[in-house]
Specification:
With about 700 residues, this protein is an alpha+beta fold. It is about 25% helix and about 25% strand. Helix 1 crosses helix 2 and helix 7 packs across helix 8.
């Protein structure tokens, strides 16, 4: 029944009905009786508005009709921004929960991941709850054309796995003490941004990690069926309600079912009587029984949202070592992408790796985040809920951050377990392409001894206000004999809200992050809002950080010590004699190299070049090779090669700026040309004169 129809039936104005719905007015008692009669429900329901009316359109699936102009989308392009990887899912969903944390009470946001494998009767009951009979023709249509496009092949494999192996993996992500999906079903708001739209980010705070509106796509990318169900408890009432706001969204490619064309997405909800033909599905306020059947039951009435990924799979787990299982365990899978034990372990590792700082507190600062992982099978606990402990996954870095919060840092490392502090300047540019510096933000650098559990040593983890690890980088050119260390760089509001220009630094660094939020560098937003050279400020920050780290970890020289005498006797460095022959012009030389393996299996390389004093330097071509025991070294192609400082890249060739003394460039290799898996290779980088001959 539309608002106009209700107004005519109850004999009031349309404006009066609108005022009741928005909460601006309350109907009189005698009018409430007429409303109950008009809606064919009991008087208590109209008074309390805590349950849906008994008379109402049934919940069902609405599939978006095909475009009138014949256009087709064969999948959601946003989902291809990320891999079907539970580690990526943990990073994106936990970041979103941090961004939506309710800050007024000072408590952390609590995020819980629950893996649940269904078989037998439990699987049949769940399929009935999601109205599988309505969905089956659409999945069949997609499977029939699966060979023609990628999304169809993924969906077809997911459906076959469910029926042939008789199993389905659910992965639920719950957050508590978060804002929830507030706002109208269609108008601007968090609900519409997540459920209805793409590339829209409506985050609550200035320290938010996300800014592209792409992170939510990881939920659907992790589902082999393209299906996610949602149950949200709102921090701000909508339609006078807060609990059990439920909806489902399905992402399928274009398809034709029974002669009718469908554009792609579909929604599970209650038909909206205000839509044309009452076809469009909107969210509904579900009862406890429905929420339980959909595996969306939440703990209590604390605000937040539950996302249920139906048919979760973890393609990236194929590159990992298999989990140790008991000999009689029937959970051994043919490909491992739905191995719930392996997925449990990888979720815990990802949370500890990327959010250790958000889970660390000290002094007057409380943790921003609590995270845990639990695994079930058919309602029975298979792996007990495991709370992620930052002191276990990142002992050195969490010790450093805690010392900063407690005020127990030192100026120089003299004993094991100490944490040294330095401030490193980030000179913020003026916006709008103007020349000059807005101000200097003192970022905080912490250095401490490394422990085995930290992973790769001699690295700097950089983060800002939401305390998610953004950038991981090694320190090039370390002197020989330094003790293994770990370093943390706190920038923006992570350095402290009272630190000069913390808000401006937060905004600047956020704009310098790509959709993956895994580095700081040149981005389109940085160029548009500041200038095409603004990223040089970040490159300078990196250089200053590396210099400060070297100064902190270098051992002081000891003249005439016994140890030095023994070392000089044990080492012999041959010296060249005779006059130096000038064999040609001075050439740039590689002076530092930082290389890591990216999420896609590519080599990610950052290199420093020392430039000689010369009027005009020759152009140089960086060439990346694989080190082999014998024979010629295989050459790899660049997928990306960009200048960072002191140089320009022109068709794969480096051209150096006049009077520059150092240059920095960054690149990533093309994975398609790798002859073997990247983790099994060693890298060689050469600078060659001219075009690379």
């Amino acid at each position: 029944m539309t608002q106009t129809q209700l107004a005519e039936t109850v004999d009031v104005t349309r404006a009066a009905v609108s005022a009741w719905i928005t909460g601006r007015a309350t109907p009189r008692p005698e009018t409430i009786e007429r409303i109950a009669q008009a809606l064919n429900t009991d008087l208590a329901t109209v008074h309390t508005r805590t349950t849906d009316t008994l008379a109402g359109l049934p919940v069902g699936w609405y599939h978006r009709p095909g475009h009138a102009d014949g256009g087709r989308e064969l999948g959601n392009a946003a989902a291809f921004a990320f891999d079907a990887d539970v580690g990526v899912l943990a990073r994106e969903t936990c970041q979103n929960s941090l961004d939506e944390r309710l800050t007024e009470n000072g408590r952390p946001v609590r995020v819980r991941y629950t893996l649940h494998e269904l078989t037998g009767g439990h699987l049949d009951a769940f399929r009935q709850a999601i109205l599988w009979d309505e969905l089956h023709p659409h999945y069949t249509a997609v499977s029939e054309s699966a060979a023609q496009q990628k999304v169809g092949r993924v969906v077809d494999a997911g459906v076959r796995d469910m029926f042939e192996k008789g199993r389905l993996v659910l992965l639920r992500v719950d957050d508590y003490n978060a804002s929830g999906l507030t706002g109208d079903d269609y108008d601007d708001g968090k609900f519409a941004a997540v459920v209805r739209r793409q590339l829209e980010s409506l985050k609550s705070g200035r320290t938010a990690g996300g800014s592209y509106g792409l992170g939510k796509a990881t939920l659907w990318a992790t589902s082999a069926l393209g299906l996610v169900l949602i149950n949200s408890t709102l921090s701000v009432p909508h339609e006078g309600r807060t609990e059990h706001r439920v909806i489902g969204r399905l992402e399928l490619p274009w398809r034709s079912v029974k002669g009718r064309q469908y554009a792609g997405p579909a929604w599970l909800g209650r038909p909206d009587p205000d839509s044309q033909g009452a076809e469009v599905a909107r969210s509904w306020w579900a009862d406890e029984e429905t929420v339980d059947r959909l595996y969306l039951t939440r703990d209590g009435d604390e605000p937040g949202t539950s996302f249920l990924i139906v048919g979760a799979h973890d393609v990236a787990s194929l590159e990992q070592s298999p989990v140790d299982l008991d000999a009689d365990d029937e959970d051994v899978r043919d490909d491992g992408t739905r191995d719930i034990r392996a997925m449990h372990r990888r979720l815990v590792e990802a949370l500890g790796r990327d959010f250790w700082a958000a889970m660390t507190g000290g002094g007057s600062r409380l943790p921003l985040l609590e995270a845990s992982v639990e695994t079930r099978r058919n309602g029975e606990v298979l792996i007990e809920e495991e709370k992620v402990d930052p002191t276990v996954h990142q002992p050195s870095r969490s010790r450093a951050l805690r010392a900063f919060y407690d005020g127990t840092t030192v100026d120089r490392l003299t004993e094991s377990g100490q944490v040294a502090l330095r401030t490193v300047p980030l000179r913020l540019p003026l916006s709008g392409g103007r020349r000059g510096t807005l101000g200097t933000h003192p970022a905080v650098l912490l250095v401490t001894d490394a422990e085995d559990a930290d992973g790769i040593s001699n690295q700097v983890h950089s983060l800002r206000g939401n305390r998610m690890t953004i950038k991981k980088s090694g320190v090039a050119g370390l002197p020989l004999g330094v003790n293994a260390f770990q370093a943390v760089l706190l920038a923006g509001q992570a350095a402290g809200e009272a630190v000069p220009f913390s808000e401006e630094a937060e905004e600047f660094l956020r704009a310098a992050e790509p959709p993956e939020h895994d580095r700081w560098g040149q981005t389109e937003e940085l160029t548009l809002r500041w200038s095409h050279t603004a990223h040089h400020r970040i490159a300078r920050l990196t250089t200053d950080v590396n210099a400060a780290v070297k100064e902190l970890v270098a051992r002081p020289k000891r003249s005439g010590s016994q140890e030095g005498t023994k070392l000089r006797k044990a080492l012999t460095v041959p010296r060249k004699t005779g006059s130096r022959r000038n064999s040609g012009p001075a050439l740039p030389e590689l002076d530092g190299l930082d290389a890591t393996i990216g999420a896609g299996g590519e080599w990610q390389i950052t290199a420093e070049v020392k430039l000689p004093r010369a009027g005009e330097l020759p152009a140089m071509t960086p060439v990346v090779l694989l080190d082999v025991r014998s024979g010629s070294r295989p050459k790899l192609d660049w997928a990306e090669l960009v200048a960072v400082d002191g140089c320009e890249v022109d068709d794969g060739v480096l051209r150096f700026m006049p009077r520059a003394r150092r240059a920095v460039f960054r690149g990533s290799t093309d994975v398609a040309g790798h002859p073997v898996r990247t983790a099994l290779t060693r890298l060689v980088l050469e600078l060659r004169v001219g075009k690379g001959e």
